[in-house]
Design goal:
The protein has 14 helices and twelve strands. By secondary structure, the chain is an alpha/beta fold. The chain binds pyridoxal-5'-phosphate.
Protein backbone atom coordinates (compact mmCIF):
# COMPACT_ATOMS: atom_id res chain seq x y z
CA UNK A 1 0.00 0.00 0.00
CA UNK A 2 2.99 2.33 0.38
CA UNK A 3 4.17 1.87 -3.18
CA UNK A 4 3.82 4.72 -5.64
CA UNK A 5 2.17 4.14 -8.99
CA UNK A 6 5.49 5.17 -10.56
CA UNK A 7 7.26 2.32 -8.75
CA UNK A 8 4.49 -0.14 -9.61
CA UNK A 9 4.57 0.85 -13.28
CA UNK A 10 8.34 0.38 -13.61
CA UNK A 11 9.27 -3.06 -14.95
CA UNK A 12 11.98 -4.93 -13.05
CA UNK A 13 15.03 -5.74 -15.15
CA UNK A 14 14.44 -8.97 -17.10
CA UNK A 15 18.03 -10.06 -16.46
CA UNK A 16 17.20 -10.31 -12.74
CA UNK A 17 14.65 -13.04 -13.50
CA UNK A 18 17.04 -14.84 -15.84
CA UNK A 19 19.79 -14.68 -13.24
CA UNK A 20 17.48 -16.13 -10.57
CA UNK A 21 16.94 -19.15 -12.81
CA UNK A 22 20.66 -19.46 -13.60
CA UNK A 23 21.50 -19.40 -9.88
CA UNK A 24 18.92 -22.09 -9.17
CA UNK A 25 20.43 -24.36 -11.83
CA UNK A 26 23.95 -23.71 -10.54
CA UNK A 27 22.83 -24.59 -7.00
CA UNK A 28 21.45 -27.86 -8.37
CA UNK A 29 24.97 -28.55 -9.67
CA UNK A 30 24.10 -28.03 -13.36
CA UNK A 31 26.54 -26.43 -15.82
CA UNK A 32 25.35 -23.17 -17.36
CA UNK A 33 26.81 -21.36 -20.37
CA UNK A 34 25.96 -17.84 -19.28
CA UNK A 35 25.42 -15.78 -22.42
CA UNK A 36 23.40 -13.04 -20.73
CA UNK A 37 26.24 -10.72 -19.78
CA UNK A 38 26.13 -7.02 -20.62
CA UNK A 39 29.79 -6.41 -19.84
CA UNK A 40 33.23 -7.43 -21.04
CA UNK A 41 34.91 -10.08 -18.84
CA UNK A 42 38.20 -8.14 -18.59
CA UNK A 43 39.84 -5.73 -16.16
CA UNK A 44 40.66 -2.29 -17.57
CA UNK A 45 44.19 -1.74 -18.86
CA UNK A 46 47.06 -1.27 -16.43
CA UNK A 47 47.68 2.42 -17.23
CA UNK A 48 44.15 3.24 -16.09
CA UNK A 49 44.53 1.07 -12.97
CA UNK A 50 47.82 2.87 -12.18
CA UNK A 51 46.09 6.23 -12.45
CA UNK A 52 43.43 5.06 -9.99
CA UNK A 53 46.14 3.87 -7.59
CA UNK A 54 48.04 7.14 -7.84
CA UNK A 55 44.92 9.07 -6.77
CA UNK A 56 44.28 6.93 -3.69
CA UNK A 57 46.36 9.09 -1.34
CA UNK A 58 44.64 12.38 -2.01
CA UNK A 59 41.94 13.68 0.31
CA UNK A 60 40.00 15.17 -2.61
CA UNK A 61 39.60 11.73 -4.14
CA UNK A 62 37.19 10.91 -1.31
CA UNK A 63 35.31 14.21 -1.17
CA UNK A 64 32.41 15.75 -3.06
CA UNK A 65 33.46 17.00 -6.46
CA UNK A 66 31.60 19.58 -8.56
CA UNK A 67 27.98 18.61 -9.36
CA UNK A 68 28.58 18.35 -13.13
CA UNK A 69 31.95 16.65 -12.77
CA UNK A 70 35.51 18.02 -12.68
CA UNK A 71 35.97 20.77 -15.26
CA UNK A 72 39.21 19.27 -16.62
CA UNK A 73 37.50 15.95 -17.28
CA UNK A 74 34.41 17.57 -18.81
CA UNK A 75 36.67 19.45 -21.20
CA UNK A 76 38.68 16.33 -21.90
CA UNK A 77 35.59 14.26 -22.81
CA UNK A 78 34.26 17.09 -24.98
CA UNK A 79 37.55 17.52 -26.87
CA UNK A 80 37.92 13.75 -27.22
CA UNK A 81 34.45 13.36 -28.69
CA UNK A 82 34.83 16.28 -31.12
CA UNK A 83 38.27 15.04 -32.22
CA UNK A 84 37.26 11.41 -32.75
CA UNK A 85 34.17 12.57 -34.67
CA UNK A 86 36.24 15.09 -36.66
CA UNK A 87 34.04 18.02 -35.64
CA UNK A 88 35.65 21.46 -35.50
CA UNK A 89 35.52 22.78 -31.94
CA UNK A 90 34.04 26.21 -31.43
CA UNK A 91 31.54 25.52 -34.16
CA UNK A 92 28.76 24.80 -31.70
CA UNK A 93 27.96 25.93 -28.16
CA UNK A 94 28.47 22.57 -26.46
CA UNK A 95 28.99 21.50 -22.85
CA UNK A 96 29.63 18.20 -21.10
CA UNK A 97 28.17 16.85 -17.86
CA UNK A 98 29.55 13.76 -16.12
CA UNK A 99 27.13 11.45 -14.32
CA UNK A 100 27.07 8.13 -12.48
CA UNK A 101 27.20 6.02 -15.62
CA UNK A 102 25.69 6.75 -19.02
CA UNK A 103 22.37 5.29 -17.89
CA UNK A 104 22.25 8.13 -15.39
CA UNK A 105 23.11 10.60 -18.17
CA UNK A 106 20.18 9.33 -20.26
CA UNK A 107 17.86 9.53 -17.25
CA UNK A 108 18.90 13.15 -16.56
CA UNK A 109 18.69 14.05 -20.25
CA UNK A 110 15.11 12.76 -20.44
CA UNK A 111 14.27 14.46 -17.13
CA UNK A 112 15.56 17.78 -18.43
CA UNK A 113 13.59 17.64 -21.68
CA UNK A 114 10.47 15.45 -21.43
CA UNK A 115 7.11 16.79 -20.27
CA UNK A 116 4.23 14.43 -19.36
CA UNK A 117 2.55 13.30 -22.59
CA UNK A 118 5.58 13.92 -24.81
CA UNK A 119 6.38 11.13 -27.24
CA UNK A 120 9.87 9.70 -27.62
CA UNK A 121 10.64 7.52 -30.64
CA UNK A 122 12.75 4.43 -30.00
CA UNK A 123 13.98 2.00 -32.63
CA UNK A 124 13.33 -1.66 -31.90
CA UNK A 125 15.19 -3.76 -30.89
CA UNK A 126 16.10 -1.16 -28.27
CA UNK A 127 18.04 -1.13 -25.04
CA UNK A 128 15.73 -2.33 -22.22
CA UNK A 129 15.92 0.82 -20.12
CA UNK A 130 14.74 3.37 -22.71
CA UNK A 131 10.98 2.74 -22.41
CA UNK A 132 11.12 2.53 -18.62
CA UNK A 133 13.07 5.78 -18.31
CA UNK A 134 10.79 7.59 -20.78
CA UNK A 135 7.72 6.43 -18.85
CA UNK A 136 9.31 7.36 -15.53
CA UNK A 137 9.37 11.01 -16.67
CA UNK A 138 5.77 10.83 -17.94
CA UNK A 139 6.65 10.41 -21.61
CA UNK A 140 5.32 7.83 -24.09
CA UNK A 141 7.73 5.50 -25.88
CA UNK A 142 6.78 5.17 -29.56
CA UNK A 143 8.36 2.12 -31.15
CA UNK A 144 9.56 1.75 -34.74
CA UNK A 145 10.04 -1.92 -35.65
CA UNK A 146 12.86 -3.35 -37.74
CA UNK A 147 13.60 -6.79 -39.22
CA UNK A 148 16.55 -9.16 -39.02
CA UNK A 149 16.77 -9.38 -42.82
CA UNK A 150 17.32 -5.59 -42.92
CA UNK A 151 20.13 -6.01 -40.38
CA UNK A 152 17.73 -4.44 -37.88
CA UNK A 153 18.09 -1.05 -39.56
CA UNK A 154 14.97 1.12 -39.46
CA UNK A 155 13.52 2.69 -42.61
CA UNK A 156 13.42 6.46 -42.42
CA UNK A 157 9.92 6.17 -43.94
CA UNK A 158 8.81 4.20 -40.86
CA UNK A 159 10.20 6.86 -38.54
CA UNK A 160 8.37 9.50 -40.57
CA UNK A 161 5.09 7.63 -40.08
CA UNK A 162 5.21 7.84 -36.27
CA UNK A 163 6.13 11.51 -35.99
CA UNK A 164 3.27 13.48 -34.43
CA UNK A 165 2.80 16.97 -32.98
CA UNK A 166 3.69 15.43 -29.60
CA UNK A 167 7.04 13.97 -30.73
CA UNK A 168 9.75 15.46 -28.55
CA UNK A 169 12.76 13.25 -29.12
CA UNK A 170 14.20 10.21 -30.84
CA UNK A 171 16.84 7.86 -29.41
CA UNK A 172 19.43 6.39 -31.77
CA UNK A 173 21.71 3.68 -30.40
CA UNK A 174 24.57 2.78 -32.72
CA UNK A 175 26.36 0.38 -32.19
CA UNK A 176 23.28 -1.27 -30.93
CA UNK A 177 22.38 -3.32 -27.89
CA UNK A 178 20.94 -5.98 -28.46
CA UNK A 179 21.63 -6.44 -32.23
CA UNK A 180 25.40 -5.95 -32.34
CA UNK A 181 25.32 -3.81 -35.49
CA UNK A 182 25.96 -0.16 -36.23
CA UNK A 183 23.94 1.76 -38.79
CA UNK A 184 25.74 2.47 -42.05
CA UNK A 185 27.19 5.80 -43.10
CA UNK A 186 24.46 6.04 -45.75
CA UNK A 187 21.77 5.51 -43.12
CA UNK A 188 23.30 8.17 -40.89
CA UNK A 189 23.39 10.62 -43.81
CA UNK A 190 19.77 9.93 -44.68
CA UNK A 191 18.72 10.18 -41.05
CA UNK A 192 20.60 13.47 -40.59
CA UNK A 193 18.99 14.95 -43.68
CA UNK A 194 15.59 13.84 -42.45
CA UNK A 195 16.17 15.35 -39.01
CA UNK A 196 17.02 18.71 -40.61
CA UNK A 197 13.38 18.83 -41.68
CA UNK A 198 12.23 18.32 -38.07
CA UNK A 199 13.65 21.19 -36.08
CA UNK A 200 11.30 20.42 -33.18
CA UNK A 201 12.83 17.01 -32.46
CA UNK A 202 15.68 16.43 -30.05
CA UNK A 203 18.07 13.54 -30.83
CA UNK A 204 19.69 11.34 -28.20
CA UNK A 205 22.69 9.57 -29.69
CA UNK A 206 23.63 6.71 -27.34
CA UNK A 207 27.24 5.91 -28.25
CA UNK A 208 28.31 3.77 -25.29
CA UNK A 209 29.47 1.03 -27.70
CA UNK A 210 31.05 3.54 -30.11
CA UNK A 211 34.55 2.07 -29.63
CA UNK A 212 33.45 -1.57 -29.69
CA UNK A 213 33.42 -2.54 -33.36
CA UNK A 214 35.29 -5.38 -35.01
CA UNK A 215 34.48 -4.92 -38.68
CA UNK A 216 35.12 -1.82 -40.74
CA UNK A 217 33.80 0.68 -41.52
CA UNK A 218 33.81 2.11 -38.01
CA UNK A 219 30.63 3.74 -36.68
CA UNK A 220 29.81 7.19 -38.03
CA UNK A 221 27.16 9.62 -36.85
CA UNK A 222 24.55 11.87 -38.50
CA UNK A 223 25.95 15.07 -36.93
CA UNK A 224 29.30 14.48 -38.66
CA UNK A 225 27.50 15.21 -41.94
CA UNK A 226 25.18 17.87 -40.53
CA UNK A 227 27.02 19.53 -37.59
CA UNK A 228 24.15 22.02 -37.24
CA UNK A 229 22.18 19.11 -35.69
CA UNK A 230 24.54 19.25 -32.69
CA UNK A 231 22.42 22.17 -31.42
CA UNK A 232 19.73 19.63 -30.57
CA UNK A 233 21.66 16.41 -30.18
CA UNK A 234 22.58 14.92 -26.82
CA UNK A 235 25.55 12.58 -27.16
CA UNK A 236 25.71 9.91 -24.49
CA UNK A 237 28.91 8.00 -23.74
CA UNK A 238 30.90 6.61 -20.82
CA UNK A 239 33.67 4.29 -19.70
CA UNK A 240 31.58 1.18 -18.95
CA UNK A 241 32.14 -0.54 -22.27
CA UNK A 242 35.20 1.14 -23.83
CA UNK A 243 37.27 0.80 -20.64
CA UNK A 244 35.55 -2.35 -19.37
CA UNK A 245 34.59 -0.47 -16.21
CA UNK A 246 30.85 -0.97 -15.69
CA UNK A 247 31.18 -0.88 -11.90
CA UNK A 248 33.04 2.44 -11.73
CA UNK A 249 29.94 4.34 -12.83
CA UNK A 250 31.17 7.16 -15.02
CA UNK A 251 29.18 8.32 -18.02
CA UNK A 252 28.70 11.66 -19.71
CA UNK A 253 26.44 13.69 -21.92
CA UNK A 254 27.49 16.34 -24.44
CA UNK A 255 24.96 18.82 -25.72
CA UNK A 256 23.59 22.31 -25.84
CA UNK A 257 24.67 24.41 -22.81
CA UNK A 258 21.11 25.15 -21.66
CA UNK A 259 20.08 21.48 -21.62
CA UNK A 260 23.29 20.45 -19.86
CA UNK A 261 22.64 23.14 -17.23
CA UNK A 262 19.13 21.76 -16.66
CA UNK A 263 20.57 18.25 -16.31
CA UNK A 264 23.06 19.59 -13.79
CA UNK A 265 20.18 21.07 -11.75
CA UNK A 266 18.51 17.63 -11.61
CA UNK A 267 21.82 15.98 -10.71
CA UNK A 268 22.46 18.56 -7.97
CA UNK A 269 19.20 17.65 -6.21
CA UNK A 270 19.50 13.90 -6.64
CA UNK A 271 22.91 12.21 -6.73
CA UNK A 272 25.38 15.16 -6.69
CA UNK A 273 28.57 14.77 -8.72
CA UNK A 274 29.94 11.35 -9.75
CA UNK A 275 32.80 9.34 -8.22
CA UNK A 276 35.68 11.78 -7.46
CA UNK A 277 38.45 9.15 -7.36
CA UNK A 278 37.68 7.74 -10.80
CA UNK A 279 37.20 11.15 -12.36
CA UNK A 280 40.61 12.27 -11.07
CA UNK A 281 42.19 9.10 -12.44
CA UNK A 282 40.56 9.76 -15.81
CA UNK A 283 41.87 13.34 -15.94
CA UNK A 284 45.42 11.94 -16.10
CA UNK A 285 44.61 8.90 -18.23
CA UNK A 286 45.46 9.07 -21.91
CA UNK A 287 42.21 8.07 -23.67
CA UNK A 288 44.23 7.06 -26.74
CA UNK A 289 45.43 4.02 -24.74
CA UNK A 290 42.02 2.44 -25.02
CA UNK A 291 42.75 1.53 -28.65
CA UNK A 292 45.64 -0.77 -27.61
CA UNK A 293 43.46 -2.15 -24.86
CA UNK A 294 40.58 -2.82 -27.25
CA UNK A 295 42.64 -4.38 -30.07
CA UNK A 296 42.69 -7.97 -28.66
CA UNK A 297 39.06 -7.60 -27.53
CA UNK A 298 38.02 -6.63 -31.05
CA UNK A 299 39.96 -9.62 -32.35
CA UNK A 300 38.17 -11.98 -29.95
CA UNK A 301 34.75 -10.56 -30.86
CA UNK A 302 35.53 -10.89 -34.56
CA UNK A 303 36.45 -14.53 -33.98
CA UNK A 304 33.24 -15.12 -31.99
CA UNK A 305 31.15 -13.59 -34.77
CA UNK A 306 32.93 -15.83 -37.28
CA UNK A 307 32.18 -18.86 -35.12
CA UNK A 308 28.46 -18.06 -35.09
CA UNK A 309 28.44 -17.82 -38.88
CA UNK A 310 30.23 -21.19 -39.16
CA UNK A 311 27.87 -22.92 -36.74
CA UNK A 312 24.80 -21.52 -38.50
CA UNK A 313 26.18 -22.54 -41.89
CA UNK A 314 27.01 -26.08 -40.78
CA UNK A 315 23.52 -26.53 -39.35
CA UNK A 316 21.91 -25.29 -42.59
CA UNK A 317 20.69 -22.11 -40.89
CA UNK A 318 22.54 -19.62 -43.11
CA UNK A 319 19.21 -18.09 -44.13
CA UNK A 320 18.64 -17.11 -40.47
CA UNK A 321 22.05 -15.53 -40.06
CA UNK A 322 22.91 -11.85 -40.15
CA UNK A 323 26.38 -10.32 -39.83
CA UNK A 324 27.14 -8.54 -36.58
CA UNK A 325 29.81 -5.83 -36.59
CA UNK A 326 29.91 -4.16 -33.18
CA UNK A 327 29.04 -4.15 -29.46
CA UNK A 328 29.11 -7.74 -28.12
CA UNK A 329 25.72 -9.22 -28.85
CA UNK A 330 23.80 -11.29 -31.40
CA UNK A 331 20.00 -11.27 -31.56
CA UNK A 332 18.53 -14.67 -32.37
CA UNK A 333 15.24 -14.38 -34.25
CA UNK A 334 13.46 -17.65 -33.36
CA UNK A 335 10.59 -17.02 -35.75
CA UNK A 336 12.94 -17.83 -38.64
CA UNK A 337 14.35 -21.02 -37.10
CA UNK A 338 13.09 -24.62 -37.53
CA UNK A 339 12.61 -25.01 -33.73
CA UNK A 340 9.86 -22.40 -33.87
CA UNK A 341 7.49 -24.89 -35.49
CA UNK A 342 6.96 -26.70 -32.21
CA UNK A 343 5.77 -23.51 -30.50
CA UNK A 344 2.90 -22.68 -32.84
CA UNK A 345 1.62 -19.21 -33.62
CA UNK A 346 -1.22 -18.78 -31.11
CA UNK A 347 0.82 -16.80 -28.62
CA UNK A 348 2.27 -13.67 -30.13
CA UNK A 349 5.56 -13.60 -28.24
CA UNK A 350 7.13 -16.79 -26.95
CA UNK A 351 10.59 -15.44 -26.26
CA UNK A 352 10.52 -16.33 -22.55
CA UNK A 353 9.15 -19.85 -23.10
CA UNK A 354 11.76 -20.61 -25.75
CA UNK A 355 14.61 -19.12 -23.69
CA UNK A 356 13.51 -21.22 -20.67
CA UNK A 357 13.37 -24.38 -22.80
CA UNK A 358 16.83 -23.67 -24.24
CA UNK A 359 18.25 -23.18 -20.75
CA UNK A 360 16.64 -26.40 -19.44
CA UNK A 361 17.60 -28.53 -22.44
CA UNK A 362 21.04 -27.16 -23.38
CA UNK A 363 22.32 -25.19 -20.36
CA UNK A 364 22.68 -22.06 -22.54
CA UNK A 365 21.32 -18.92 -20.82
CA UNK A 366 20.03 -16.08 -23.02
CA UNK A 367 18.00 -12.90 -22.42
CA UNK A 368 14.43 -13.03 -23.89
CA UNK A 369 13.94 -10.50 -26.69
CA UNK A 370 10.63 -9.27 -25.22
CA UNK A 371 12.67 -6.86 -23.08
CA UNK A 372 14.19 -5.34 -26.23
CA UNK A 373 10.87 -4.94 -27.99
CA UNK A 374 11.44 -7.75 -30.50
CA UNK A 375 9.06 -10.72 -30.43
CA UNK A 376 10.23 -14.33 -30.49
CA UNK A 377 13.88 -13.56 -30.07
CA UNK A 378 16.72 -13.64 -27.55
CA UNK A 379 19.95 -11.79 -26.99
CA UNK A 380 23.14 -13.78 -26.87
CA UNK A 381 26.35 -12.19 -25.53
CA UNK A 382 29.62 -12.93 -27.31
CA UNK A 383 31.74 -12.56 -24.21
CA UNK A 384 32.46 -16.22 -23.43
CA UNK A 385 35.96 -17.49 -24.21
CA UNK A 386 36.47 -19.43 -27.44
CA UNK A 387 36.20 -23.00 -26.06
CA UNK A 388 32.99 -22.59 -23.97
CA UNK A 389 31.55 -20.38 -26.72
CA UNK A 390 32.05 -23.11 -29.32
CA UNK A 391 30.48 -25.69 -27.01
CA UNK A 392 27.53 -23.42 -26.19
CA UNK A 393 26.95 -22.53 -29.84
CA UNK A 394 27.05 -26.21 -30.82
CA UNK A 395 24.30 -27.07 -28.33
CA UNK A 396 22.27 -23.96 -29.10
CA UNK A 397 22.36 -24.31 -32.87
CA UNK A 398 21.46 -27.99 -32.55
CA UNK A 399 18.34 -26.97 -30.60
CA UNK A 400 17.46 -24.18 -33.03
CA UNK A 401 17.75 -26.39 -36.10
CA UNK A 402 15.43 -29.16 -34.80
CA UNK A 403 11.70 -29.02 -35.48
N1 LIG B 1 23.15 2.41 -23.27
C1 LIG B 1 23.19 1.15 -23.72
C2 LIG B 1 22.75 0.88 -25.11
C3 LIG B 1 23.63 0.11 -22.90
O1 LIG B 1 23.66 -1.16 -23.36
C4 LIG B 1 24.05 0.42 -21.58
C5 LIG B 1 24.47 -0.66 -20.67
O2 LIG B 1 24.39 -1.83 -20.92
C6 LIG B 1 24.00 1.75 -21.16
C7 LIG B 1 23.54 2.72 -22.03
C8 LIG B 1 24.39 2.15 -19.77
O3 LIG B 1 25.73 2.02 -19.48
P1 LIG B 1 26.39 2.56 -18.16
O4 LIG B 1 25.32 3.17 -17.31
O5 LIG B 1 27.02 1.39 -17.52
O6 LIG B 1 27.39 3.60 -18.60
Amino acid sequence: MFLSSRAKDTQASITLKVNEKINKLLQEGKYVYNMTSGQLPFKPNHTFKEQIQSQLNFLKSYQYGPVSGFKKLREKFLTHKLTTRRIESGQINLECIISNGSKHSIYNALGATINPGDEVIILSPYWVSYPEMIKFWGGLPIVVQTQAFDNFTPYIEDIKKVISPRTKAIIVNSPNNPCGIHYTKEWMQEFGKFMLEHEEILILSDEVYGDIYYFDPSPEYFYQYYPELLNRTLIIDGISKSLASTGLRVGYCIGDKKIIKAMSKIQSQTTSGPNSLIQKALIDYNLEHRDNFLAPIREQLRESARLIREEFREAGLSHCYYQTTSAFYYLLDFSRMPCFEKYGHEIEDQSTTIVNDILDKTGVALVPGTAFGHKNSARMSLTLEAAPLKEALGKLVDYLSRK
